[in-house]
UniProtKB/TrEMBL annotation:
It comes from the Bacteria. This is Cupin type-2 domain-containing protein. Residues 35-101 form the Cupin type-2 domain. It holds the Pfam family Cupin_2. It comes from Flavobacterium laiguense.
Length: 107
C-alpha cells in the first residue's frame, strides 16, 4: 500500500449507479476508503450492508442522507456513521456536485 496518495492525480471512475463516480484511496480485505462524486439530481438507492459499517464525511455540497428512519441534510465537515444492516441512501438534489469521503470497516 502506498504511503502518499495524490487524489488530484487519480481519474474519476464511473460506478454502477448513474451520477456517481469514485476515486479509490484505500482497498483492503477489512475495508476501504474512497472519494465519491455525486452529480446534481442523482441518488443512490436505499440499501444496507449486513457485514460492514460505513461512514461518510461531507467534503463539499449538501447531500441528503437517509439512515434508518432518520433523514439529514449534510453540510461540509459533517460525519455520519451507517451501522451494519441499517438501510441508508444518498441523494444530491442540489445543482452542484457533492463530494464525499466514504469508508467502510468489515464486522
Amino acid at each position: 500500500m502506498e504511503n502518499n496518495i495524490k487524489p488530484d492525480l487519480l481519474n474519476w471512475e464511473t460506478t454502477k449507479i448513474k451520477g456517481f463516480s469514485s476515486k479509490q484511496l484505500i482497498e483492503m480485505k477489512n475495508g476501504g476508503l474512497k472519494l465519491i462524486k455525486v452529480e446534481p439530481n442523482s441518488s443512490y438507492p436505499l440499501h444496507n450492508h449486513p457485514d460492514k459499517t460505513e461512514y461518510i464525511y461531507v467534503l463539499k455540497g449538501l447531500p441528503e442522507i437517509s439512515i434508518g428512519e432518520d433523514d439529514f441534510t449534510g453540510k461540509e465537515g459533517e460525519f455520519y456513521i451507517l451501522n451494519e444492516s441499517v438501510r441508508h441512501s444518498i441523494k444530491n438534489n442540489d445543482s452542484k456536485d457533492c463530494i464525499l469521503l466514504i469508508g467502510s470497516i468489515q464486522s
